[in-house]
């Protein structure tokens, strides 16, 4: 039913790929102009848990300098439309 995927990236190219894929999975498809209500079957199957990536705190960086470029992104699966 529900589930989450968490991805930690360390390079900008990796982060861009994850960001793009997460955005595609959690956004609405192209809709006809003037559509008053969005049908349930067109609702996204996933939602972003955090809009911006989670980055290491100053304390974490002091303890682990290699974490400097790390970014954490989380995507959550919504309830199935077919249940």
TrEMBL record:
> Which molecular-function annotations from GO does this UniProt entry contain?
rRNA (cytosine-N4-)-methyltransferase activity
Output the Gene Ontology cellular-component terms. Answer: cytoplasm
Top-rank taxon = Bacteria
BP term (GO), one: rRNA base methylation
One Pfam entry for this protein is: Methyltransf_5
| PANTHER family (UniProt xref) | 12S RRNA N4-METHYLCYTIDINE METHYLTRANSFERASE, S-ADENOSYL-METHYLTRANSFERASE MRAW
Protein's name according to its UniProt entry? 16S rRNA (Cytosine(1402)-N(4))-methyltransferase
Q: Which organism is it from?
A: Candidatus Levilactobacillus faecigallinarum
């Amino acid at each position: 039913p529900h589930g989450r995927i968490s991805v930690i990236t360390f390079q900008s190219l990796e982060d861009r790929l994850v960001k793009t894929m997460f955005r595609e999975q959690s956004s609405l498809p192209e809709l006809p102009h003037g559509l008053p209500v969005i049908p349930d079957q067109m609702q996204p199957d996933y939602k972003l848990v955090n809009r911006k990536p989670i980055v290491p705190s100053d304390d974490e960086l002091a303890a682990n300098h290699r974490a400097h470029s790390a970014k954490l992104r989380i995507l959550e699966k919504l309830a199935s439309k077919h249940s």
